[in-house]
Amino acid sequence: MKGKDFEDLCIQRARKEEDNGNLTMGKYGVRGAFDAATKTWRPIPSYPDFEGVTMDGRQFIFDAKVISGTSLPMKADHSPLRQREHLFKRWDWNVTTFYLVHCLAFTSPAGKKTYPEMTIALPTDPGLEHWEGVGDESRKSFSRDDLLKFGLIVHWTLPDSASRKKLPNFLAAIRKLRGGES
Length: 182
Description:
Number of domains: 1
Largest sheet: 6 strands, mixed
Number of helices: 4
């Protein structure tokens, strides 16, 4: 599964949740600027992938990532600073923000460890210890074990009784990140 495929599945889930009256969600738009000197468009660093509002009027924002190896890179070329800072700032304003990380099944090259496929919501509360060192890049990644330690497992469920396809239930993660709401 590629990142775009995972994003599409998140959108499918959001549409079902909107039909069920639970939330509304959209993608942040791609931004660009026109350079008159070169007569070309250049991309402006992006925001996280998704933002939305739950039926109780509270905002949420998340960035969807897919990893196929042993860790989620946090270097600027994999997780742009602008995105992280946006997530951190909004968290400080009581918005539920997180990375939604889909980890593909993986076996280490030596075959010593096998990781199952799973999805994890990693909260972006800048006050939590696991974010120390990310800004100065002394922490370059989160291992799968780190993701499990600091994040929440996101189960893939049927959005409603008419659905046939399981999708990532990020709404349950949003509720848990808000303090155990069900």
